[in-house]
Specification:
- GO terms for molecular function: 3 iron, 4 sulfur cluster binding; 4 iron, 4 sulfur cluster binding; electron transfer activity; ferredoxin hydrogenase activity; metal ion binding.
- There is one protein chain.
- The protein has about 290 residues and is an alpha/beta fold.
- It folds into two domains: about 170 residues, Rossmann fold, CATH 3.40.50.700; about 120 residues, Cytochrome-c3 hydrogenase, C-terminal domain (Cytochrome-c3 Hydrogenase, Chain A, domain 2), CATH 4.10.480.10.
- The chain has twelve helices and eleven strands.
């Protein structure tokens, strides 16, 4: 019988959205042949939460879902104390979701002293600094189940993962959600006469799409192997980024008609140059679809 890696899934201040996203992984039976949960808040596990808190159960990987605050408790014990106890025995720690990574929605809600494990939005914090070398971040609201599962298999196989500055695997976060978007031709020619749910038109210039400056794999690894927000006609909300959630998600904030947030790596000067060139083009093939009834 092959040895399974043992996982502890801790739920901190969470809506359990990442848990439910994970449950949509289409090959769960195969996954559970290679991994076992000593505790999971939803999946049947060998131990109860009270066992996890009162004892020290051997495990290999600690998964943390939800924002972290010392005041928040599980089984009458601070979540910080539980993390500290198990961090000493596991091989790796994975923050599951934007709340566990950056603080996310619960940080914005005003819950006291709340952050991610290593980051308060973009700022690195001192808490758990000694665990930086053990940690991998999987941001997203919710996470894509395949990103999490592929990361866990990389750990199991002792594969060296190249990480970005927020400890996210570059294999999934080195490019932007804009990469692979089926609306890129509309983006290039600044065709943004878009209505939600329709297949034509870019949503960046007027409708708040954050795909050009959001790191993620949504248009590379499709959700449910079928779709993504931008393909379905909804602007990217930037849910993998430290600043999530932003206000006014469905409008593009501008300064003198220039989007405040430009695509990653594009300077204001370069943007103005490209915009000036683009205005010289009129692509009837693209615009006809938008205006035909």
């Amino acid at each position: 019988m092959k040895k399974k890696m043992r996982i502890l899934w801790l739920s901190a201040i969470s809506c359990n959205g990442n848990t439910h996203s994970f449950l949509n992984y289409p090959y769960m039976e195969t996954f559970l042949d290679d991994f076992e949960f000593i505790y999971h808040p939803v999946i049947d596990s060998k131990y109860l939460l009270q066992d996890i808190v009162s004892k020290l159960i051997s495990c290999d990987i600690l998964l943390i879902e939800g924002a972290i605050s010392r005041e928040f408790k599980r089984a009458d014990v601070s979540i910080v104390d539980i993390i500290e106890k198990y961090s000493k025995i596991v091989q790796k720690i994975v923050t599951v979701g934007t709340c566990a990574t950056f603080g996310g929605i619960f940080r914005e809600s005003g819950y006291k002293n709340t952050s991610g494990l290593h980051f308060d939005q973009e700022k690195q914090i001192e808490n758990f600094k000694y665990l930086l070398d053990k940690t991998i971040s999987i941001s997203g609201c919710p996470i894509h189940p395949e990103v999490l599962v592929n990361t866990l298999y990389a750990i199991k196989k002792s594969t060296t993962l190249r990480l970005d500055g927020f400890l996210r695997p570059k294999a999934f976060y080195a490019y932007t959600v804009h990469n692979g978007c089926t609306r890129n031709e509309y983006f290039e020619y600044k065709v943004d006469n878009h209505k939600f749910g329709e297949l034509e038109g870019c949503m960046y210039y007027e409708h708040g799409c954050q795909a050009p400056f959001t790191h993620g794999s949504c248009n590379k690894i499709l959700w449910n192997e079928v779709n993504s927000k931008t393909r379905a006609g909804l602007p990217c909300m930037g849910c993998t980024e430290p600043s999530f959630p932003r206000q006014n998600l469905f409008s593009t904030k501008k300064n003198m008609s220039i989007p405040e947030n430009l695509p990653v790596g594009v300077s204001k000067r370069a943007y103005l140059t490209l915009a000036g060139i683009t205005k010289a083009f009129k692509i009837d093939r693209l615009e006809k679809k938008l205006f035909d009834d």
